[in-house]
Specification:
CATH superfamily of chain A: Ribokinase
Number of domains of chain A: 1
Strand content of chain A: 15-25%
Largest interface: A-B, 33 and 36 residues
Order of helices and strands of chain A: HEHEHEHEHEHEEHEEEHHHHE
CATH class of chain A: Alpha Beta
CATH architecture of chain A: 3-Layer(aba) Sandwich
Oligomer: homotrimer
Radius of gyration of chain A: 17 Å
Structural class of chain A: alpha/beta
Largest sheet of chain A: 9 strands, mixed
Strand order of the largest sheet of chain A: 2-1-3-4-5-8-9-10-11
Chain lengths: 273, 273, 273
C-alpha cells in the first residue's frame, strides 16, 4: 500500500521549496535528493512567492527562527495555498520560547497545512495544552509509550481535526492521523534521536511524499514516517562497533537512497486505529 | 598540464573568502581544506572588505540569497577587484526568481569576475537568453549533450566574451572557455547531481585553483572542473551496494583530499575546441 | 581524574544553547549529541534569553558574525550570567577583522565567561597583543611548540587572570589554564586542522563538560580538550588509504559517541605546569 506512495515520489521527482533552519538544512536537501525528489532553499521575502510557485510543495521549519524569515514563511505559505500546493509545518522547539510557540500558532492560523509533523511536546505546545519541553526534544513526561498510546491517539485525532491537517506526532511510537484514521507506527530506532535533524529530515521527506501523492495526504505522510523509521532500522544493520552518530546519519541517508518499494511494503510496521 | 595547477594549490594553500549559502557551506569549507587551500566565511557588510583583503581569492555564491548579504557581495567583489584578487561567481538558481536573476546580473555588471560557473540554465538566465530552470538544477531541455555540444560551445564562448570572464558551464559535459579556447570535459558521473552542493563545492574549488594560478585562469578553471569530475569517478569506485548519496558525498571529498598530481594528469578527460 | 568529568556529561545530559556560525553548526549539534549532551540553536534577540533560561549552559561562537546576532549574544550571555550558567566563548577569527576583534572584546567586557577557547592568534587578538592571523587559523609564527611552550603558558595564565576565565589555547600543544594551574595537552593529530570546525566542535564539547561539572571548570575544560584530541587519535586509526577529511570528520564524531571513561582516563596525555 505504501509502495505506491514511494513510487510516485521516484516517478514525479517533486521539487520542494524549503524554508528551514541552518542547522540541518544540508541533511534536508540530501534526503530530498535521496528519496528521488529535488530541493530548493529560499527564505528571502523578495523571492519566496516566486520560488514556491515553480515548486510542487513547501516545507516550513521554524528551527533557528528569526524575524527576517517569519514574513517569508507566511507569504510562501499563502501563495502555496493559493496554488493548491501541499504545505508541511515542522514546529521545531514550539513550547521552548514564546517566539516559536506564537509563530507556530500564527502559521497554523494563517496558512492551511497539509501535514504538521512534530514531537509530542511541540504538538501539545501548538494545541495550547500544557506541555513540558526539553529544548527541541520531547519532554520525558510527554513521550508516547505503549501505555499511553490510546490517549496519544485521541489527542492526535482531536488536534488534527481542529487544525484541519494531517498530524504526525513522532517518537518511540509515531501517530499519523487525519482526525478519523490513525496509523500507529513502530518503525525506527531510539538511536535516531542521537543524530541532529532526523525530525527535520522526516518533515522534508514528508513534503516530497505528500507532493507526489496529493490526493492521499494521510497515506503519503504515514508512508514517509514508515520509510524514515525503516531506513533507521536498515542503517542500523550496517553499524560497526566503531561507528557512532556521524556514520549512522550517513547510513540513514544512504538507506533512503537505496530503499526499494518492496522493502517499504514489507518493512512498514503499523496498525490502524 | 593540469598537474601544475593542482601543485600550485597544494604549495600556496590559498586562503579563500566565501560569501555563500547556508545549505552547502560546510562542504565548501571542507573541499577547500581537502584540496590544500584554506576557507574563511564572512558575509556581514561591516567586515567583508577587510576579510577579503587578507585572503587571496573570493568566491561569491547566491544560493539562499538575502537582502543582508547582497551589499556585502558587491562590496567584497569591488574590493577584491581593486586588489587584483581572483573572484568566482556561482549564480545558483539564476532564472528561478527575479531576485536571483537580477542580483546575478548586477554582480556581473558591478564586479569583474575571473570565473563564472553555473549550469546551463543559470548561465542562460544570466545572458538574458530565454531559459527554463528546475529550481537550482538545469532544465532537461537545456542540458548539454553530445548532440548540441557545438551549439553549447558557441554559446559559452559568446557569453564568456561578453562577460569578460572565464565561463564554466557544467553538466553531463562541461564546457570551460575564455571566449577563444574551450575545454570540453567528460569527467564526472550523473550520480553527482544526487548530492546537494557538488556545484557549490566546484565553485569553491575553482576559486582555490584560480587563486593559486593567477596568470592562467582558463587552465586553472578547467583543471578544477576536471579534478571535481575525476574525484566523482574515483569516489564511485568505493561505492558498495548499501552506499547512497551521503557516503558518495564523503567519498568525493576524500578523493579530493587524496588526489595526486599523476591521477589528475592521467584522469583528466577533455578535448579542446 | 578526567573520567568523572565525562561521566557527569553522560549522566546529566546537559542542554546547551548555541549561538554559532552557519558553517559548522551541524557538527556542533552532532558532537553535543555524541558526547551525551543535547543541543539547541537559537540566535534571534526575541528568544535567546528565554532559550538560554531553559538550558544548562551557553556556547557563543563568532564565526559568520553579523549585526543581527551580536545583540543576541550579549543578551543571552548576560541572562546566562544572571542564572549562574556556564558560558563558553569561541572568538573565531578574532584578529581577522575589526568587527570580530571588537565584538569578541566587547563580549569579554560585558559577559563573564567560564571558558574562552581559541587558537593562539585569536587569544592574542583578544588580549590586545599584536598577532598575525591566517583567517580563522593560527598564524604559523604564533604557533605553540615545545620550544615556546613556557612562554605560551605564561601568556595563557596572564590572559586567564585578566579575563577571569579558564582559557584554552588549542593547537599542536593545547594549554588550558585558570591563571594558576596550566594543563599542557599533547593529544590530537595535525590532520584535524584539515577538517572545518574541529575548533567549533571542541567549544561546544567544552560547554557540555563545564555545564555538567559546574564546580570544576578548569578540570572540565581540560577533560574536553583531551577528549577531543584523543578522539582525533582514535579516529585516525580507522583511516584507510582512500579516506580523507570527510571520513575523518565522521570518525571523530563517532569516536566521541563511543568514548569510554577508561579510554579518556588512559588516553589523556597532559602535564600540569
Amino acid at each position: 500500500m505504501f509502495q505506491e506512495m514511494l513510487q510516485n515520489v521516484r516517478e514525479k521527482s517533486p521539487l520542494i521549496h524549503n524554508i528551514t533552519n541552518y542547522v540541518t538544512v544540508n541533511d534536508c536537501a540530501n534526503i530530498l535528493l535521496a528519496c528521488g525528489g529535488s530541493p530548493i532553499m529560499a527564505d528571502d521575502l523578495a523571492e519566496v512567492e516566486e520560488i514556491t510557485s515553480i515548486c510542487g510543495g513547501l516545507n516550513i521549519n521554524i528551527g533557528t527562527l528569526n524575524h527576517r524569515t517569519i514574513p517569508a514563511m507566511i507569504a510562501a505559505g499563502k501563495r502555496s495555498n493559493a496554488l493548491g500546493h501541499p504545505v508541511v509545518l515542522d514546529p521545531v522547539g514550539a513550547g521552548a520560547s514564546a517566539l516559536r510557540t506564537d509563530t507556530a500558532r500564527r502559521l497554523v492560523e494563517e496558512v492551511k497545512f497539509t501535514v504538521i509533523r512534530g514531537n509530542i511536546s511541540e504538538i501539545k505546545a501548538l494545541s495550547g495544552a500544557s506541555a513540558a519541553t526539553k529544548g527541541v526534544d520531547a519532554d520525558l513526561a510527554d513521550r508516547v509509550t505503549e501505555e499511553n498510546l490510546g490517549e496519544a491517539v485521541a489527542f492526535a485525532k482531536s488536534f488534527a481535526k481542529a487544525a484541519g491537517a494531517v498530524t504526525a506526532i513522532t517518537g518511540a511510537i509515531d501517530v499519523v492521523t487525519d482526525g478519523e484514521t490513525a496509523y500507529c507506527i513502530r518503525n525506527g530506532r531510539p538511536e535516531m534521536s542521537r543524530i541532529t535533524g532526523t525530525g527535520c529530515q522526516l518533515s522534508a521527506l514528508t513534503a516530497a511524499f505528500v507532493t507526489a501523492n496529493p490526493d492521499q495526504p494521510l497515506r503519503a505522510a504515514a508512508a514517509a514516517v514508515c520509510a524514515m523509521g525503516l531506513c533507521g532500522e536498515i542503517a542500523w544493520t550496517r553499524m560497526t562497533p566503531a561507528d557512532g552518530n556521524a556514520s549512522y546519519r550517513n547510513y540513514i541517508l544512504d538507506a533512503v537512497y537505496n530503499l526499494t518499494l518492496q522493502q517499504l511494503e514489507e518493512g512498514a510496521n503499523y496498525e490502524v486505529r
